[in-house]
Amino acid sequence: MAGRRARWCPIGEPPLQQRCPFSARSDGPGAAAGVAKEELGPLGKHIRDIILATGPISVAKYMQLALTSPIGGYYTRGQAFGREGDFVTSPEISQMFGEIMAVWFRLHWEMLGRPARTALVELGPGRGTLMDDMLRAARRFPEFFASIRGVHLVERSPELRRVQHDRLGCDAQQTKIVADQNAPERSVSVARGGIPIHWYDMLDAVDPDSDCVPLVIAHEFFDALPVHKFEKGTDGLWHELLVDVAESSNNRAVVLRPPGTQPQQQQQPESCHFKLVRTRSVSASAALLLRDKRFDVQFDKGDMVEVSPESARVMAQLADWISRRNGLGLIIDYGQDWTQGDTFRGIKNHRFANPLVSPGSMDLTADVDFSYLRFAARGKAACHGPIEQGAFLHAMGIQARLQQLLQATSDSKTQKDLVDCYRRLTDPLSMGRVYKMLAVLPGSSAVVPVPFAPPTGADLNKPKVEKIVR
Ligand SMILES: C[S@@+](CC[C@H](N)C(=O)[O-])C[C@H]1O[C@@H](n2cnc3c(N)ncnc32)[C@H](O)[C@@H]1O
Questions:
Q1: Separation CA 377–CA 86 (nearest Å)
Q2: Least CB-packed of 231, 270, 392, 420 within 10 Å?
Q3: Looking at residue 460, what is its pLDDT?
């Protein structure tokens, strides 16, 4: 068991690329100018046809199609993770990560008064590794484990659902599609240990028994939700950045530099089938999404912002649900506690890549704006944090768990791997700082989750905008 996944971060080799911006490289396939254009795949052709028929589309629409379209969306194909894929995530680095998450939920289950019936909910479970490790660790606490009446997974990708099904030891004989008018994309099975597992397309469809307290985890889910991009023009107004076909001349828009390049580099890489353009007038999305006064006063001409209304929608729903059912949530992702401008990027073969090349062939992501999530939860749930992953894992005892695992093996290679994984998860220069945790509790709850600091009155859910000084 010890170091089971440590082979993905061997000592002496450069670490695989996390989906976060530290050690960012923009030399991925197609990032440089002068690379020959690849043939567009079916999804690229589909997006090109949409643009040619209706005009440039938002970055959010492009991102949504590139990740989750049934015709070749990146996650729909489901081959993303690990050394053979494009990136590794914390649960895939070490079992310690999922075990600590289970301990955190078990601790707060006590603080919530040991509810007899709970439902574990995960948004974007990837390969099912985090949930598998959490369930295994939860078995060590029999009363807590007995309270778990079901596991509810929000996953769009049919291929990843299959991987999760196998990972959780689900019985194929007991797997069935549930014909439910309200949740057409729902399926159900039974995992090892007899726990019912349910899959859903969207959070809206999740429906555990009403007397179950939801314990919700979302790891690297919000960074995959689509963002709109805006730039403040010389007229002082917010213009939206849209995705256009690289060959098309469009007199409604201004051609911009490609994502991930320096402002002075104006030319479009030849390998791109798509380009960013800026609307000449204020778009409806800009008018709708940037209404808040802070966008007028805190940003200068030439500044960019990324906004994810889909993240706000999911967060508001989650906050409402957690409050009504007296539940608990933990959101873990990379990002900052303020609105950011230029983080939309592709990830391919463990490198950063130009997101406008070959949609569907690479992961697309943007850093999470935790202040926006807290803002979306206001009036519904109480958000605590975000705090840095390194601080969280240390406070939750990762060093003690590391010691246990080190003592359980006499193999020095395994021991080295374990220490390396611990460092990758906690070191501020690795994943310890840029990854953050946000806890979500019912608005009425007086509980301050461990290890979050008590909020200072007005700070609770207060939106925060800090401009990045470039
Ligand atoms: C970056 S992966 C993270 C996987 C896993 N949590 C981990 O850390 O290893 C994002 C996950 O969210 C899922 N996903 C992305 N967008 C989604 C959406 N709009 N609705 C439901 N699931 C989505 C993907 O299929 C994938 O399982």
A1: 32
A2: 270
A3: 54
